[in-house]
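Practice problem: predict the structure.
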Amino acid sequence: MADSNLHKLSKRGQSVWIDYLSRDLLEEGELARMMREDAVVGVTSNPTIFQKAISQGSRYDDQLKELLAEETDPKEIFLQLSARDVEAALDLLAPIHDKTGYDGFVSWEVDPTLAYDRERTFDEAMRLHAWLERPNLYVKIPATKPGLGAIEDCVAKGKNINVTLIFSLERYAEVVEAYLRGLERLVASGGSPKDVYSVASFFVSRVDTEADKRLDAIGSKKALELRGKLAIANAKLAYEHYEAAFSGPRWDFLAGKGASPQRCLWASTSTKNPAYRDVMYVEELIGPHTVDTMPEETIRAFQDHGEVRGDTVENGVKEAHALLDEIAAVGVDYDDVVKTLELEGVQKFADSFAELLEGVSQKRDVVAAS
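Answer:
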């Protein structure tokens, strides 16, 4: 399988991660198979995925029974359950991390209901890092305004952070700045940045979902021609900023101390609109020093018919800048699109977390009664 489409993708310098984790995936050997056959070198997780895994089937029942002897809080039960899965995945991916440094990571998410509280987000992130003290653990923090401070504070403590829910170019620039300031504080305090890693998770397809809805409502010929284009342009402009931010004297100083750049991670790369090519968000954002975290259906689709056409993320940057002007000219407010997406994204994560805790409570009650 060394010549599979995803192996070809990874040879361009883009890391293939998957955006789901479950006990089934681990215990049935599916993750190990994907590492061999699909070039998978990392895992991200979220409450929705865990909710489905825990509520369906019986793989968590034995551990639940053990936990009920000393714990009843649904959140703490969830963390115990997910910690076991995350730890097993960390062990499986450790050799990759040992070899590369920048891959072999597993992400564990901070309670999203804390997204607008800097101090509590920081405390929770530090708690998760202390819970599983592994060099290949990422803790996920949403890129809200308060989240930026928590991200900087965690990096200043030498912790690996996956910054999630990035939609806007302005917010992405703030995320990069938080990372750089965190590294500078770490160095100033006498610490070493050589084992500190971060990714900036830019959500892709959701941008088109929101923008297309507005373009459809406008309905003009020009507006309709712009559908399905903003998300890719947005990501390409983010990559342009990445290349500028991680070069020059400021970065050279940190790199000289052993710091690693904060890679762009393309999330939400499944295609939501069936009218679009199902792998277009992967094909158009291939480039060195990036990550693409994919759901299972996108992994399968790309292996079957994905095309690797060079470093496509670097193509059409001038046109991407022009597209933002065209979008504005037909009446779509970019700033409002990305603001809406951030608010909705945080709320969706919080709703999923609430649903997860409700599912844990129901499962707890069923197991307790059995």
